[in-house]
Each structure stands twice: as C-alpha cells, then as structure tokens.
Design a protein that fits this description.
Blueprint (H helix, E strand, L loop, with lengths): L2 H14 L1 H12 L6 E9 L6 H10 L3 E8 L4 E7 L7 E7 L6 H11 L24 H8 L3 H9 L5 E5 L9 H10 L12 E3 L4 E5 L4 E6 L2 E6 L2 E7 L13 H7 L9
Parallel strand pairs: 1-4, 5-10
Antiparallel strand pairs: 1-5, 2-3, 3-4, 6-7, 7-10, 8-9
This protein binds 2-oxoadipic acid (OOG) and nickel (II) ion.
Protein name: 2-oxoadipate dioxygenase/decarboxylase
Keywords: Dioxygenase, Iron, Oxidoreductase
EC number: 1.13.11.93
Length: about 270
Amino acid sequence: MQQQLFNELWKGYTDQNPSAQAIHDLFSNEGELVINDHVAFRTFDDPRMNIQVLAKKFLKAGYEYVGEYKFEDKHLNAVHLEHPGEDAPRVFISELILSEFSDEFQKIIKNRLNSIGNAYYSDPDLIHKGSVWGKPSYEIYQKLREESEYGAWLYVHGFRVNHFTVSINALKKYDSIEKVNQFLKDNGYPMNTSGGEIKGSPEVYLQQSSTLSDIIKVEFEEGVYDIPACFYEFAIRYPDESGNLFSGFIAANANKIFDSTNYREA
Ligand code: OOG
Ligand code: NI
C-alpha cells in the first residue's frame, strides 16, 4: 500500500541523483533483491514545517513513532517511524534547532521561510516539493555552511527524500558491509569516510555506510554552481538481546552519515 508513495519518492530522488539508480541497477544485475531499510528527510524545527508536520503524511498512512534521537554538536533532533502492519521502509526525520544558531543565521532562514505563505507548508505533499522558496543565493549557501552544513543543504534543496538505504540483510552475494563497500568502490563511487567508512559495529547491532552525495548543477541567484545533493546508504542489522533484528538507529553512526552532503569541490 505504501508502494506508490515510495515509487514517487524514488523517482524524484533518482531524477536528481542518477548514481542511486545506477547503483540500484548494479545490484539488480548481480541478481540481488534491493529492499529499502529506510528513507530520510530533513527539515527546520519551525512549527510550520517541523518533524511533526513532515511526519503527518506517514502517520496517516499507518506509521507510528518508534525512536527519538538528539545530535548536540549538529543541533538536530530526529525521530524514526515504522509501519506496524506492513513491510514498509522505516522513515527517519530530523530537524535543525534554529534557536541554537547565531542571530544572523536565524534571520536568513526566517526570511526564507517567511518568503512564501504559510499555506504552502500545510500541503500534505510538502515532502515532495523540494525548494519551495525559489532560487537560493550561493553567497548565503556558503555563509550558512560556516555554522551548519545541514542548514546550508536544506536552504538550497528544501523538502525531499535525502537518501534511500539498501538493506544488506536482503542481499545474498554481498552479505557484508565490507563486500558492499568494495563493490561500490570498484565501480567508482566515492564513499563517505567521515569517522571511517563503516559506521557502527555488530556490538551496536547496526553497521552503515554511504556514498558521497551526487554533485549536481543548481541555479543560484548568482549563476549555476555545482553542489552536493543526495546520497545512497547501505545498512546491515544484527539480532539484539531479544534475538530480533535491531530496528532502531544509532546516534553515533547517524552523526557521521549526515556528513555525506557536506560541500566539496566537484
Ligand atoms: C540523516 C543521517 C542519519 C541514519 O541512517 O542514521 C541517517 C541525514 O543525513 O539526513 O540517515
Ligand atoms: Ni540513513
């Protein structure tokens, strides 16, 4: 039942980030079944568009809140939702805590958020809408980065799925994160090495890795510039003390996954 929603999200994501489709096809061509462990979204903690607002679409579809996370150094809150009745991907939503930034940073973001009517934010399809605010400024993008790469990314890209995640548990031949990473590197995809290529360990029941975001051309007020968009993630889960596969997220892993969208030269 969630298939249509995830198909739409996949279309928007792969249209913008062709490497995700290419990697998906590489695994399919190896005879692998590509299943999504989770998808992730980013937002600001402004009450017009915070986690609760983005979660609405999923709550309506039968999802429930399961986990809560905090990232002090990145000034983020996050939650994850699961669908109790269906084999649907987990949904991870984070939000930037604006009050923890400089006055100037807050002013820039507030101006952008106020540049459109509040009705835009109550659209149930907000999660597909991307940058609802029109052309960004490259100078401001670079300025926001001094305080938050996440904030700068969100200022430009707006509301869209930030990554899909391949479940390594569902792969046959590529049955470890080491094998997956090697396969990606052999095919020329640069990996996020922040905190090491593999985030987590069997001891915390979750290992993750991700590609670096695709660099795409974005039209700014000042002209067209190459900047990072979205990435593809890979996750393997292990049984916890209860004997069931661990289903949550690990803040220390996630903290480094966020860095996949950091600005870098093309
Ligand atoms: C989310 C980073 C965290 C995970 O699986 O722990 C994450 C983001 O980059 O928006 O995806
Ligand atoms: Ni993720």
